[in-house]
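U., I forgot to send this yesterday:
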Amino acid sequence: MSFQVKEPILVIGVGGVGSKLAIKAKDSLNSDYLLISNDEKDFSAENPSIHVSTKGVINPSVQLIRGSTYNVSDEIQSKIARYSTVILMSNLAGKAGSAIAPVVSEMCKDKGLVSFAIMPFKYEKDRIFNSGVSLKRIRENSECTVVLDNDSLLESNPDLSPKTCYDIANSAIIHVVESLGSSEISNETNILTTSKDGQNIEDSLRDSLKMLYGNAPPNSVKRSMLYVVGGNNIPVGIINSITNLTSGILNDSNSQIDMGSTSDESKVVMLSSIQGMTKFDNYDPLGMIPQEDTLDWSTPDCSIDCKLDLYQLE
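Result:
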């Protein structure tokens, strides 16, 4: 089943990366936007924003930022109240993204919520667990979740720098956002894959498929949308070739091609609907426990100052 985007639309950017994506996305959708972060440097005075204060703690934990987000929950809910569709942008490799995004997604779960989540590199070991926990909650709260894995992008292109990976990931996300009004997106978990710039279109498709199968087994891919960036500049014979190749791999009835982009560069951006396990389910060792068997599922892990006067008992 496809997700239906209804106006009015609000794009919410969480943290530094999410805020930058939200500002770009709102121009593409002609929508309103809201930035949320614990770091005031992530937005300027002219941006509609909500600051999550950690009360002077300059190196807050994910749990402290998350607990502080609940202190501004009424303000967040008042900002999102009148919108039919919310698009949530977050980088789960960052503290702000992994802390705030699950809380915001919980507030938006009764609306049409599309969540875009960026996952960390493998070497960011201290961020793997928190990103997995946050993604599980975001998926539960969202009608549609789009996940892009920085680590799989780097594995397919080991010569890339982290900054280049970030730029490629952000560009792929914005491309999907721009196409929301013209193409379908599944009401499930979707894996977003792409390739580095400067490749021919066949190599770009190969790297996109390699990235996809690094995130999920082939039999879990139920449907794929192939966005051919700069498709108007590519010979028809090559378009037919990659169409036949994609149909053979993914099943003819489950693959579609979108040629809507007018970019000068030529590359493939692939959005694949997944049913079943992904590599991200292993990021949280307890993630296999069903929600109904989790006693404290209703509220994610957070740190709060209860100001309790506890006395020693003798």
